[in-house]
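Async update (no meeting this week)

Hi team, since we skipped the sync, here's where things stand on the single-chain job. The sequence we agreed to prioritize is pasted below, unchanged from the tracker. I ran it this morning and attached the output directly underneath so nobody has to dig for it. Comments welcome in thread, and please keep replies under the output.
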Amino acid sequence: MEIIVISLGGSLVVPEEIDIEFLKSFKALILEHVAQGKKFVIITGGGKTCRKYNEAASAISKLSNYDLDWLGIYSTRFNAEFLHLIFGEEYTEKEIIINPTLPINFTKPIIIGAGWEPGSSTDLDTILIARNLGARKIINLSNTDYVYDSDPKINPNAKKIEKISWSEYRKLIPKDWTSGLNTPFDPIASKMAEEKGIEVIIMNGKPIDNLAKCLNGEKFLGTVIS
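Output:
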């Protein structure tokens, strides 16, 4: 039985408005592979929803990172409930995974998960679930094509990286986690992934054909961190 762990960025679910066309194609692709006997754990991020609430709350009141983390966590849980409804109870476990350290039992082919506790992003939850299941690879889907050697939004000459070690990747990102931190994979999760020998693929979820190639074991566009 092949278990595939996917971190689905909130930037794909709700970039500005809910991306119905992407979600239709994502659902169809996942169910195509379910029909082949594969099982999936899909962890949802908060994305723009999280950032909008954090920015609004911070503009009104002085809040701690702990408070902002909780806002982010609840936005991931809302997205998870939304995804759970999209796939339906025919395919998904009834309960959404909140605590990734508890035993995980598959009675349906898809499990949906969300944020757990303050101090990190859903990236760490994904690593914890992979460790829990003995999975050695995670597909991290967002609106980012690759990991770059610098921020391509700031540096037009930033170079894409197709393969990189965890030690080199961690030199490119901040050492500490802060709520709303926008990196391809967060610092705490990256440290644990390196310690546990878990490979993470960073890739854009669009076009959906790119994810299809990855799931089929074909050459795809993205960065492999190992």
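Quick observations from my side:
Strands lie at 3-8, 39-44, 110-113, 137-142, 147-148, 160-161, 163-164, 199-204, 223-225.
The longest helix spans residues 65-87.
Reply here if anything looks off.
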